Amino acid sequence: MFDRGIGDGFVEALKRWDHWGEITSDRDLFVGIRKDSINIYYLGCSLFKITHKKELTFETHYKYLIRPTVNNTYVLWQGDRPDVQYPWNDILIDKFDLDSLKKSSRWYAELEKAGLQRILKSNKNVVDVEIALSPNSGAEPDGEDQPSEGRRVADRIDFAAIQRRKDGPPCIVFFEAKRFENGELKARKGEPRVFGQIRKYEKFIGDNGAALKTSYGKVCKDLVKLIPPDRYDPVVKEIADNPEQLTVDPYVRLVVFDFDEDQRVGKIWGKHRKKLSDHLGNRLLLKGSPSEFKSGISK
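Structure (tokenized):
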């Protein structure tokens, strides 16, 4: 069953951790609340997976620990073996250094995920990313499986945001985000692959509505306790204080970004865009620059 949220003991332990303030003040980072764990994302890369039992436990994939200054260093071979002369701490980051971790992870960041981060920075009502569709969806994989663009190793909804509604209570809304060049948006014949993805996501939402409502009520409570007020939209606090008012939108929005004016008005794209628009209507959201994307997400 879908589940989210961490306990008060976990929250207090994080707030006592020396580097928690550094993480929550960095607007390039996203705090992803899971079931009894947290992922700290940068450009779609999970820099840390944090869990808590008696104490905090931190996990970082080794590839992010390679010092950014080492990436262009060549190693000589002696016979059939590399001749590595460096001490391990000349190669690996050996203390908490957020700037170095971010620089090292950029080598593995997808363009699509980098664009998504710019969307997250512009919309403070986003409360979750990389939402896995599985029987145990409270605990996603660690985000280290970086597939090539347009390919996935697991079905994941890209992000979720809480929106105010003029004619009703606040609602949790789910979004699939793709760069303009993603082949899943286009099909010469039949429907593009993205339609099948969205149908799968909407079935998941329909099957897990009650659990999603409960889980994101807990996520809002955790976020309000963990991150500064200027990092989240006031609607997040409203749900934290009154989670029973939250509703779940059954329909997924498709966000398309990273295109210029020539691409936007091009004849070839026009055919694909019409197919998307006919199918999705106002659930198709288009913006050339992801950093300017607010309409349909936080507005």
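Confidence is low (pLDDT under 50) at residues 135-153. Residues 133 and 204 are 7 Å apart (CA to CA).
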